[in-house]
Amino acid sequence: MTQKISVIGLGKLGASMAAALASRGFEVIGVDVNQRSIELVNQGKAPVQETNLDETISANKERIKATTSHEEAVLNSDISFVIVPTPSDERGAFSLQYAAWAFKEIGRALSKKNSYHNVVLTSTVLPGSTREALIPILEKESGKKAGRDFGVCYSPEFIALGSIIQNFLNPDFTLIGELDERAGSQLEEIYSRVMVNGAPSARMSLENAELTKISVNTFVTTKITFANMLAEICEKLPNGNVDVVTNALGMDSRIGRKYLTGALGYGGPCFPRDNVALTFIAKELGVDAKLAETTDSMNRAVAAKVVERLRPMIRENATVAVLGLSYKPFSHVTEESQALFIAQALSRAGARVVGFDPLAGEMALNELHGQIVVLDSIEECLKQAEAVLITTPDPAFKELTVESFKNERSEILVVDFWRILQDKLDEQSKIKYIAFGYGDDDQENTKRLKELWGGTAKETFQTSGK
Ligand SMILES: NC(=O)c1ccc[n+]([C@@H]2O[C@H](COP(=O)([O-])OP(=O)(O)OC[C@H]3O[C@@H](n4cnc5c(N)ncnc54)[C@H](O)[C@@H]3O)[C@@H](O)[C@H]2O)c1
């Protein structure tokens, strides 16, 4: 039975997986090209910031060691998970540059190994990458045959930043793309001992697994974008209420409630790039993946639409506060954050933008230097702002009260994209509160609906002679 596992790449996902595997009793040897990460792991500390990572590494210190030598790791383990970066390239595909380098090192180590070894790629790659690009590197460097002398799998994880360890140990399913049966069975056996919730496995070819991985993300982002589209429609619809609609939609078991809250678009390091990558590979295969393309373009249009909508409501040079700068609550990550896109667009439109986030202030400042003033507290922001945008449903913002918004100004505009303060701020004096996705008394559209449908009633009464 496999007891020794190597993890190549000790970044956000790799270090978390190494810690989680050790917490389930495996001997783990981690590899990274970054000397500092190795030192930290060997001291029992987290090399990157992630929920519970420091505690888990420290609690399982005797079962985790780290090295910069791929050879040492491969020779002292039965299976290697490779979790190196696969950044998007200029075509929108995932670059294999880091993976190729890691596979070269692993291949060299395999040439010195007599016993069976399984190489599992966990990094996100596009269909065809494992078989056509990476296996040939392993075979060339090792002088051995994949599927006969060593095993190869593609097995990505479905995890979210901020809950990587929890998600890794409790997945809905484990995805196993396998070159050969033996490799897939070994991996499935390991997962059966690692996953605390007894999740089922889906085993398939390498290419199907590569496609499944990006399909999960592109499907979820399509669902988010669909809910956001409904929110826009509801805002214009007399009596419209996006939450009422999506709550009901979610009751349909074919649809489900998750990721169906109409609000701002999606962001972060993973979601945005997957639609672009799927569009790319589909085109290469001669397929027009319009749905993925449209999801991506709708998501990229969110910030401009928000600013367009606000323009008539705020005076030029107004100070606008953006509460929430990360791409989601409890995160310091600002990559592809809708809040930052909005802050940037507002600044370009002439507003003075101040912002606050419980964790992401420093990152936001680094990214938007000169376009935003990051303040130390919500209170500081509210003191200066004529308009406030609540861009993430962070619990800190849910605590705000009517009093928090009141000061000597005549009126403050509050746009609440997640509708977290609806109960408190709606219909308060000196606060113009807009709950995104709720239609107010839109006279123009009431008239439009009358024009559109009112004739039917008239005609019916005429033909029935009433
Ligand atoms: N972070 C996530 O939430 C997440 C979720 C799903 C999938 N993924 C995928 O996992 C992969 C890794 O993501 P991440 O967020 O952990 O990246 P990361 O940048 O945080 O970590 C990658 C690590 O790999 C190391 N590295 C680079 N080349 C190496 C080599 N040849 N040998 C050993 N180490 C090497 C780097 O020094 C770094 O520590 C990517 O393909 C990503 O798309 C990440």
Helix fraction by DSSP (H/I, runs of at least 4): 40-55%
Low-confidence stretches: none
| Termini gap | 84 Å
- Tally of DSSP β-strands: 14
CATH architecture assignment name of the largest domain: 3-Layer(aba) Sandwich
What structural class results from the helix and strand content? Answer: alpha/beta
Strand content: 5-15%
CATH fold type of the largest domain: Rossmann fold
Number of helices: 20
Word description of this protein:
This protein has 466 residues and is an alpha/beta fold. The chain folds into two domains: 4-204, Rossmann fold (3-Layer(aba) Sandwich), CATH 3.40.50; 303-435, NAD(P)-binding Rossmann-like Domain (Rossmann fold, 3-Layer(aba) Sandwich). It contains 20 helices and 14 strands. Strands 3-2-1-4-5-6-7-8 form an eight-stranded mixed beta sheet, with helices on both faces. The protein has a six-stranded parallel beta sheet with strand order 11-10-9-12-13-14, with helices on both faces. α1 packs across α3 and α11 (271-284) runs antiparallel to α12. The radius of gyration is 26 Å and the shape is globular. The termini are far apart. The model has no long low-confidence stretch (mean pLDDT 94). Bound molecules: nicotinamide-adenine-dinucleotide (NAD). Nicotinamide-adenine-dinucleotide binds next to α1 and α5.
